[in-house]
């Protein structure tokens, strides 16, 4: 079977880690694109110079020319500014929308059959814009947010309960902003509800709820916590890993059920918007959105998050972006 071709648009922090992970796992040939001259060429040279050590039998090249992404099977987009301390993801809207438009034009022209995974923020708006400009079928345009947010939630639960993070199943739905919705009731450790484990640990329902609330809050603000520590940019190792999990699901047709930013056609009562929901990912991108029952409180939180996405998309349209 010929190797897959993977284009990475944006050769900054996340783009660099993505390149290295793809090469080390030999997921396919990589073309790293950036507008900054010599940056993608330098990063890819650095990475392939470890190919003897890491056993990377794939081609890894850097470019400033969209022509070189021609024929890509998968495109992962990280082009755009990251946050600085004090900024919300939404503050990036105007700058990153302009960047995303040009990226979408480039991908539409040179990789019209690709599946696209978008990481640039504000995520839900950037995915919406990319789909609109390319006109790609909605199932071929997917946003990465839920896999990372859920991994962050799972990490905090594992730390609190003193169990392996591998046994945690926890999902975060909604938009990739401060209104995101960690699903507390469904969070479990190999089937054992996290809420029950906390109640047993503290033998006090009120204290258990406080601990859970704190983990939910930390999850919602987890990106900002990293920004405040780094000061010069935002998280990049974990977003790259999250996108790799999605890329593998698509490249190897794994049919994984993952929380991703997907286009909704009436599911969860939402029509015509990209929002974070559980979906089956395979060779066709988003192959099915999986609905689940939300209690009143969860539904209200989800609707609130959807409204935040809608108002950002409205802003984008109103500003003519
Ligand atoms: N086309 C292609 N690349 C561009 C363009 C453009 N029009 N404009 C900027 N870039 C490149 C920059 O040159 C830079 O190398 O995008 C890259 C972004 O890299 P970083 O600044 O290091 O940001 P990173 O941490 O990788 O995050 C990228 O993902 O998580 C989100 O909020 C984050 O929006 C940000 C994006």
Can you put this structure into words, describing what you see?
With about 325 residues, the chain is of the alpha/beta class. The chain is about 45% helix and about 20% strand. The protein has a six-stranded parallel beta sheet with strand order 3-2-1-4-5-6. A three-stranded antiparallel beta sheet has the order 7-10-11. Helix 1 (about 15-25) runs parallel beside helix 2 (about 40-50) and helix 1 (about 15-25) crosses helix 10 (about 235-250). Adenosine-5-diphosphoribose binds near residues 9, 34, 102, 233 and 239.
Brief descriptors of the model:
321 residues; 3-stranded antiparallel sheet; alpha/beta; 2 domains; Rossmann fold; globular; binds adenosine-5-diphosphoribose; 6-stranded parallel sheet; L-2-Hydroxyisocaproate Dehydrogenase, Chain A, domain 2; 11 helices
Proportion of β residues? 15-25%
Question: C-alpha Rg, in Å?
Answer: 19 Å
Percent of residues in helices comes to 40-55%
Name the structural class.
alpha/beta
| CATH fold assignment of the largest domain | L-2-Hydroxyisocaproate Dehydrogenase, Chain A, domain 2
Total separate domains: 2
Q: State the CATH class of the largest domain.
A: Alpha Beta
Mind sketching the topology for me?
Layout: E1 5-9, H1 13-25, E2 29-33, H2 39-48, H3 51-54, E3 60-63, E4 74-77, H4 93-110, E5 115-118, H5 123-134, E6 141-143, H6 146-161, E7 168-169, E8 172-173, E9 181-182, E10 188-189, E11 192-193, H7 194-202, H8 205-220, H9 222-230, H10 237-251, E12 256-265, E13 271-282, E14 285-289, H11 296-318
Parallel strand pairs: 1-2, 1-4, 2-3, 4-5, 5-6
Antiparallel strand pairs: 7-10, 8-9, 10-11, 12-13, 13-14
The protein binds adenosine-5-diphosphoribose.
């Amino acid at each position: 079977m010929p190797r897959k071709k993977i284009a990475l648009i944006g050769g900054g922090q996340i783009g660099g880690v993505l390149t290295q992970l793809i090469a080390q796992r030999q997921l396919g040939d990589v073309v790293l694109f950036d507008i900054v001259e010599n940056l993608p060429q330098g990063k890819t040279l650095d990475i392939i110079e470890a190919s003897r050590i890491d056993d990377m039998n794939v081609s890894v090249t850097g470019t400033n020319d969209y022509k070189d992404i021609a024929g890509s099977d998968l495109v992962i987009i990280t082009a755009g500014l990251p946050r600085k301390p004090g900024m919300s993801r939404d503050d990036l809207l105007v700058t990153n929308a302009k960047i995303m438009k040009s990226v979408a034009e480039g991908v539409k022209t040179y990789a019209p059959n690709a599946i696209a995974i978008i990481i640039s923020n504000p995520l839900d708006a950037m995915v919406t814009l990319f789909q609109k400009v390319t006109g790609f079928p909605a199932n071929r345009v997917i946003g990465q947010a839920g896999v990372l947010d859920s991994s962050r939630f799972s990490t905090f639960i594992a730390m609190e309960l003193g169990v392996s993070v591998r046994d945690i199943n926890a999902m975060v739905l909604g938009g990739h902003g401060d209104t995101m919705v960690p699903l507390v009731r469904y969070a479990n450790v190999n089937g054992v509800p996290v809420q029950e484990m906390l109640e047993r640990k503290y033998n006090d329902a009120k204290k258990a709820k406080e601990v859970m609330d704190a983990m939910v809050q930390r999850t919602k603000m987890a990106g900002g916590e990293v920004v405040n520590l780094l000061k010069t940019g935002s998280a990049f190792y974990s977003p790259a890993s999250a996108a790799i999990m999605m890329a593998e699901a698509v490249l190897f047709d794994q049919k994984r059920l993952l929380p991703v930013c997907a286009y909704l056609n009436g599911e969860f009562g939402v029509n015509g918007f990209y929002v974070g929901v559980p979906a089956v990912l395979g060779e066709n991108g988003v192959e099915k959105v999986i609905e689940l029952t939300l209690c009143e409180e969860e539904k209200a939180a989800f609707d609130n998050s959807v409204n935040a996405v809608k108002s950002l998309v409205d802003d984008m349209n109103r500003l003519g972006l």
